[in-house]
Design goal:
Blueprint: E1 6-9, E2 16-18, H1 23-31, E3 36-37, H2 43-57, H3 74-84, E4 87-88, H4 93-104, E5 107-109, H5 113-122, E6 126-131, H6 137-147, E7 156-158, H7 169-179, E8 186-190, H8 193-202, E9 206-210, E10 226-228, H9 231-239
Length: about 240
């Protein structure tokens, strides 16, 4: 096994351990910041409507999420919701989504990730991020930089800004192009067996299945991969 020139990471439950998503809490916090609520909708009204829409498009349905190939940017989704309920805000779109996200899903860095990233930097192994996420790159970068301020990520890619979602080969190929590297020179770490592990392996990378922050293991990767339960294991593998 060749040592990597670069390791790419997933975001949620890989770099960052997010709390269980509470969309209603996010809607309540956001509605408190609205300067106009023309429809008089409650946070519960908005939340229930959003849940209906999410089921319709299959974005967060566990039975269909793996076949969901394209990312809808939250700016567009939020605009639909705001105009539908006649909501107005005196903030930029990224500020609106940050308020929602911070309240819907507080988070902390996964245990040992800062030590791993320091090790990689010292050993001249480059790093970057590809996340399947509807929130924009601005918000994603801000959250990662707040929670892991010592990171040296060359790029942080939110799939909402690039159309294609993992496990699509196109998002991995684009990251390789940004890095200027061949697939066999890159490892990809993530918690999702299909999107992260099988997706990266199918793109020619080495897949690393990290399960240290996984709540429920519902499946296992179909492809050959490295399995770790903590970041110290990855350091050990790289040292061997």
């Amino acid at each position: 096994m060749n040592k990597p020139k670069m390791i790419l990471f997933d975001y949620g439950q890989t770099l960052i351990n997010e709390s269980i998503f509470n969309g209603l809490a996010g809607q309540r916090a956001l509605l408190n910041r609205a300067v106009k609520n023309g429809s008089g909708a409650t946070a519960e009204d908005i939340h229930n409507f959003v849940e209906e829409l999410e089921q319709e498009i299959g974005r967060y349905n566990p039975n269909t999420v793996e076949s969901y190939k394209y990312e809808i940017h939250n700016f567009n989704f939020q605009r639909y919701i705001n105009e539908y309920f006649e909501l107005e805000f005196d903030m930029e779109p990224w500020e609106i989504e940050k308020i929602f996200w911070d309240n819907a899903s507080p988070a902390i860095a996964t245990e040992g990730i800062e030590e791993l990233l320091e090790y990689l930097a010292i050993n001249n192994i480059r790093t970057g991020v590809i996340s399947n996420i509807s929130f924009g790159e601005h918000s994603l970068k801000e959250r990662i930089n707040e929670l892991i301020p010592t990171n040296h990520f060359e790029f942080i890619m939110a799939t909402s800004d690039y159309v294609f979602r993992k496990p699509s080969k196109y998002i991995f190929q684009f990251a390789l192009k940004k890095a200027g590297l061949k697939p066999e020179e890159v490892w990809y770490c993530g918690d999702n067996p299909i999107c992260d592990v099988d997706g990266s392996v199918n793109a020619g990378m080495t897949g690393v299945w990290y399960t240290g922050a996984v709540r429920h293991k519902s499946a296992t990767p179909k492809s050959h991969h490295i399995h770790i339960e903590n970041w110290k294991e990855l350091i050990h593998i790289l040292n061997s």
